[in-house]
Design goal:
The complex is a heterodimer of chains A (549) and B (284). Chain A has helices at 18-31, 77-83, 110-116, 124-135, 140-150, 155-168, 188-199, 213-221, 223-226, 236-248, 259-275, 302-307, 323-340, 350-353, 420-441, 464-474, 489-495, 512-518, 537-548; strands at residues 5-14, 35-41, 48-58, 69-74, 87-96, 106-108, 185-187, 203-205, 229-231, 253-257, 279-285, 316-318, 343-349, 356-358, 404-406, 447-450, 455-458, 477-481, 483-485, 501-506, 524-528. In chain A, helix 7 (188-199) packs parallel to helix 13 (323-340) and helix 16 crosses helix 19 (537-548). Chain A folds into four domains: 5-168, Pyruvate-ferredoxin Oxidoreductase, domain 3; 185-365, Thiamin diphosphate (ThDP)-binding fold, Pyr/PP domains (Rossmann fold), CATH 3.40.50.970; 372-440, no CATH class; 447-548, Rossmann fold, CATH 3.40.50.920. Chain A is an alpha/beta fold and 549 residues long. Chain A has an eight-stranded mixed sheet, with helices on both faces. In chain A, strands 9-8-10-11-13-12-19 form a seven-stranded mixed sheet, with helices on both faces. With 284 residues, chain B is of the alpha/beta class. Chain B has a single domain, classed as Rossmann fold. Chain B is 35% helix and 16% strand. Chain B has helices at residues 24-40, 59-62, 75-85, 97-103, 105-114, 159-166, 179-191, 211-217, 230-237, 262-266, 275-282, and strands at 47-51, 66-69, 90-96, 119-124, 170-175, 196-201, 218-220, 249-256. In chain B, strands 2-1-3-4-6-5-8-7 form an eight-stranded mixed sheet, sandwiched between helices. In chain B, helix 7 links the parallel strand 5 (170-175) and strand 6 (196-201). The relative contact order of chain B is 0.14. The chains are: A alpha/beta (549), B alpha/beta (284). The interface between A and B is large, with 64 and 57 residues. Strand 15 (404-406) of chain A pairs parallel with strand 2 (66-69) of chain B. Chain B: This is 2-oxoacid:ferredoxin oxidoreductase subunit beta. Chain B: It comes from Thermosulfurimonas marina. Chain B: InterPro entries: 2-oxoacid:Fd_oxidoreductase, OFOB, PFO_beta_C, THDP-binding, TPP_enzyme_TPP-bd.
């Protein structure tokens, strides 16, 4: 394994097009066959403030970003002030020298180029991209190809700006190698959306909320091609109930939100539990409580989603840590929801939802939605008692069946009951599905493990990127449960057997995964971070070394 | 055991628990009359009834038809999901006045605004029955309920005015004391292409007995009213403001127009997508 890697930080004000700049750079390098990872950091405002995007590229697989950077691309002075200290000793600074500004780096007059061409102000980001490309020895043709493919509009003017900035930038200071693999790139949310589609999604209905909104945007943009009806209704309550209505009619449906929106959906989550309706909810976490820090990241809703809802009913909580897992677990989630007629929560967070991953999606490995269909024998009973608690499904429109779905406690036909014996029996029927789920999910494929070290590093969800890399670097045993409810106790015990120390790293203040592991009778050492920022590889490594010292 | 009380009967074995004299019986009678016709046309299996929570909602237990017994205030989003998933279904929603005009008022306004092809029958008795007698959004000012012992200081909502303002394409009012007339309204509402709304005056015999008041004041809208005339519909809707004031209370179809359907604008045809091609185009 080679160890070439190259991190660039692009910074500027919101409205400078930093996010697009980072994405274009990432795609440009991805097309060279380098592996890339993109992290986006932006405050909750439309213009002004400070935005930055870090794109790390390497010739080995990466799923996380670094603190230290090789190239700092500053569209404003604040970027310089904030990030210069992250620049490696041999690192380069690239900045806008318009108006005669001078700093100890390479200045290119991007603003003046844009002005001379009477191009829109936003195209300054293209100028910056072109300078970064020139400086790293990327031929202009490669840059032009990416601009032509990935720019949504004004390609001509952007190409012109790029050409001028490319010429105005000094000769390359660095050669970026060609990598071996050319893989597609996905944001975590895009991968989750595609996973649900691959499993047979028919309806996506969601109210916008960061960091889940891009699922809505992505599916709305590609609705026809993907065969999914996409609805943005009046609120989260309508969104989840609309999904339940669709499920009752036989259409696989999904909704997506963040913690605050999920709080509004909890009433309907109980309804899904009682009415035994299949439902997939994406909950992409951000720091709370309440509105919290809307555009940053946290893993603090695990307890919430696990216990949300009044009454007792089985549910599944799955937590992907990269695009590939988001794809697989969204598909698995939808499929489990239909197999067991239960709500499934795909628990993501800003860091996995809005980071760009460079991975293949396992298209051929996804489960398709299937369910136990009623065979038409006798009179239909929506809540027929079965050994595993799963009743056969029929849908309205079937001339042989009367389908009665209900939020009330009910008998096997779906007629309201308050009879004590009937209440206990139906409750037991529902809980039997939980036992089936436990057996289906407490297996080796649901706990990712790597290495045999005597010290284990446990992470969940977006902890994967930095966690896996640091575990490899330090020779730790890497353990990541993909399912958190039902908690895979048996498998985790097996994975952690022979381990001397159990470190648990997560981005919350109380150690929500650590508590679950501690409940298995294992002593845990917690590495927590709750400033809204994800672990970088460097920070996690430092924190682990402190603990192990 | 069978869901139907008798073979070929529309009603189920569920024991009816409405109070004697409940206005819901009139609505049930009207609905059954309409559904009989559907049964004869062998179209009943395409019907789904959705209800909320409250006395009105029990109607789904009493009829051997497809149903979704939802939760308080949430009839319309469930109905929307059913209809979007399967446009060939006929969706008949039932809601109470607390349900539709209190907890679920945002859904109601949006349902009217969207013009999804649905029917909503509101069992409006101006009192919370199942929670034993509190005031509702349509209780008259001064209503003495268990949560407003000194009398409600609020002015009632006029649901017809609200629905007209929200863009509903079919707005009607019925009276549970005239089930035959009501059956006609429900029939027309189900035939209507678009969001059809019927506010049904429904006396609660136990907590707010309005039979005498309604019997005196209710009057069927005559043929002189043009339901395509929005101004005339609004004028008629404002004739009585849901207060205890003595006034003629029109029942019948206030407003009926055709507008484009929501589901036709938003629904995407089912297909098996080519994900490899999609990824090659948008992600490589």
């Amino acid at each position: 394994m080679s160890n070439f890697e190259f991190s660039v930080l692009f910074g500027g004000r919101a409205g400078d097009g930093i996010r697009q700049l980072g994405q274009l750079w990432a795609r440009l390098l991805a097309r060279r066959g380098l592996r890339v990872f993109l992290y986006d950091d932006y405050p909750s405002l439309i213009r002004g403030g400070h935005n930055f995007t870090v794109v790390r590229a390497a010739d080995f697989p990466i799923l996380a970003h670094r603190e230290r950077i090789n190239l700092l691309v500053a569209l404003n002075e604040e970027t310089l002030q904030r990030h210069q200290e992250n620049l490696l000793p041999q690192g380069l600074l690239l900045y806008d020298s318009s108006g005669g500004r001078e700093f100890s780096g390479l200045g290119v007059p991007w603003k003046e180029i844009v002005k001379e061409l009477s191009a829109p102000e936003i195209t300054r980001n293209t100028a910056a991209l072109a300078s970064a490309a020139k400086l790293t020895g990327i031929p202009f043709e490669e840059l032009a190809a990416t601009l032509e493919k990935d720019l949504p509009r004004a390609r001509e003017v952007n190409l012109e700006v790029a050409r001028r900035a490319y010429v105005a930038t000094p000769e390359p200071r660095l050669e970026l190698p060609q990598g071996a693999e050319r893989l597609p790139t996905f944001f975590g949310n895009e991968a989750a959306a595609l996973g649900a589609v691959a499993a047979g999604l028919r309806l996506y209905v969601a109210y916008p909320m960061t960091p889940a909104s891009s699922i809505l945007h992505y599916l709305a943009q590609h609705a026809e091609a993907l065969g999914v009806t996409v609805i943005h209704p009046e609120n989260e309550i309508a969104a989840v109930l609309c999904a339940l209505g669709a499920a009752a009619a036989g259409a696989p449906a999904m909704t997506g939100t963040s913690g605050g929106g999920f709080a509004l959906m909890v009433e309907a989550l109980s309804l899904a539990g009682q009415a035994e309706l299949p439902l997939l909810v994406v909950e992409s976490q951000r720091p709370g409580p309440s509105t919290g820090v809307p555009t940053y990241t946290a893993q603090a809703d695990l307890d919430f989603v696990t216990y949300a809802g009044h009454g007792e009913f089985p549910r599944v909580v799955l937590a992907p840590g990269d695009a590939e897992e988001a794809f697989l677990l969204a598909a698995k989630g939808l499929s489990l929801a239909w197999s067991y007629q239960v709500p499934v929560i795909l628990l993501m967070d800003k860091h996995v939802s809005e980071s760009l991953f460079h991975q293949e999606l396992p298209l051929s490995r996804v489960p398709r939605v299937s369910f136990r269909a009623w065979e038409g024998q006798g009179e239909y009973q929506r809540y027929a008692f079965t050994e595993d608690g799963v009743s056969p499904l029929a849908f309205p429109g079937d001339p042989r069946a009367v389908v009665k779905v209900t939020s009330y406690e009910h008998d096997s036909y779906g007629i309201t009951t308050e009879d004590p014996e009937a209440i206990s029996r139906m409750q037991e029927k529902r809980l039997r599905k939980g036992e089936g789920l436990r057996q289906a999910l407490d297996g080796p494929e649901m706990v990712r493990t790597e290495g045999e070290g005597e010290v284990a590093l446990c992470v969940w969800g977006s902890g994967r990127g930095a966690g896996l890399e640091v575990a490899r670097r330090l020779g730790l045993r890497y353990v990541q449960p993909l399912v958190l409810e039902p908690f895979p106790e048996k498998t985790l015990r097996a994975r952690l057997s022979g381990v001397r120390r159990v470190l648990v790293a997560e981005t919350n203040a109380t150690g929500q995964l650590a508590r679950r592991i501690a409940a298995l009778g294992l002593k845990t050492e917690r590495i927590l971070k709750y400033d809204g920022r994800p672990f970088t590889v460097d920070e996690l490594e430092r924190r682990i070394k402190e603990v192990l010292r | 055991m069978s869901l139907r009380r008798r073979p070929e009967a529309l009603d189920t074995y569920a024991v009816n628990t409405w109070c004697p004299g409940c206005g819901n019986f009139g609505i049930l009678t009207a609905v059954k009359r309409v559904l009989k016709g559907w049964e004869e046309r062998e179209a009943l299996h395409r019907l789904v009834m959705v209800s909320g929570i409250g006395c009105h909602a029990k109607i789904v237990d009493y009829l051997a038809v497809n149903s979704f017994y939802s939760i308080h205030g949430r009839v319309l989003p469930v109905a929307m999901g059913l209809k979007l998933a399967r446009p060939e279904l006929t969706v008949l929603g039932h809601a109470g006045d607390g349900d539709a005009y209190g907890e679920g008022i945002a859904h109601l306004i949006f349902a009217a605004k969207r013009n999804l092809d649905l029917t909503l029958v509101v069992h409006n008795n101006s009192v919370y029955g199942l929670t034993t007698g509190q005031f509702t959004p349509t209780s008259p000012k001064g209503f003495k309920g268990r949560s407003t012992p000194k009398g409600s200081p609020e002015t009632p909502i006029n649901p017809l005015e609200l629905m007209l303002a929200s863009g509903a394409t079919f707005v009607a009012r019925g009276y549970a004391g005239r089930p035959e007339h009501l059956a006609g309204l429900i029939e027309e509402a189900l035939k209507h292409r678009g969001f059809a709304f019927i506010d049904v005056l429904q006396p609660c015999y136990t907590f707010f007995n309005t039979y005498e008041f309604y019997n005196q004041h209710v009057k069927e809208i005559g043929p002189e009213h043009d339901p395509a005339d929005f101004e005339a519909a609004l004028h008629l809707a404002l004739q009585w403001d849901y207060s205890a004031r003595e006034a003629e209370i029109p029942i019948g179809i206030f407003y009926r127009v055709e507008k484009p359907l929501y589901e036709e604008a938003v629904r995407v045809p089912e297909k098996t997508p080519d994900l490899s091609a999609h990824i090659a185009t948008h992600h490589l």
